[in-house]
Amino acid sequence: MTHQELSALYQERIPAIIPFIHKRSRGDDDLTQEAYIAVFEGLKQDPKATNRYLKNRAQWSMTNTTHRGKSVDGRKFRKHAAPEILRLDHICIEDGISFEAILPDPKRNNLEGQVINKIMVERFRDHLTAA
Questions:
Q1: Looking at the predicted structure, is the pLDDT value of residue 87 above 60?
Q2: HSE-CB for 37 with a 13 A CA cutoff
């Protein structure tokens, strides 16, 4: 399929999808543009694609754009540090409950996460000393 044929097919199919795109993008021009590009690429992959497929593709494109943000030089998706779970089976409370301490790597964690983890560890330690 030539580019002119693809463009003509796009111009023919897009009017049925425009209301859906504008409703989902809520007037955000960047999201609208991402949805239009997704529809065009969907038609490029499968010229006989259904409108539902094209709408779904546009919706996911807008969702991914919202998720990754609008910064051009930033990462596409944030990677969260996988917590390291240490089982402390030798520490038992009166009911025989064992605890799990979640200690993520501080070099890969943000400041807010470090503060929350410090507070949790202090509460955990205070609970152990009180028992």
A1: no
A2: 10
In DSSP terms, 88 is beta-bridged to: 99
- Please state the rounded mean pLDDT for residues 108-114: 67
Looking at residues 108-126, what average pLDDT do you find? 78
CA 21 to chain centre: 20
What are the C-alpha distances in Å from 21 to residues 36, 37, 75? 8, 11, 26
Write out the E strands in 5-110: 85-92, 98-102
CA–CA separation, 28 and 13 (whole Å): 22
Which distant-in-sequence residues (6+ apart) come within 8 Å of 104 by Cβ? 81, 82, 83, 84, 113, 117
pLDDT at 56 over 50: yes
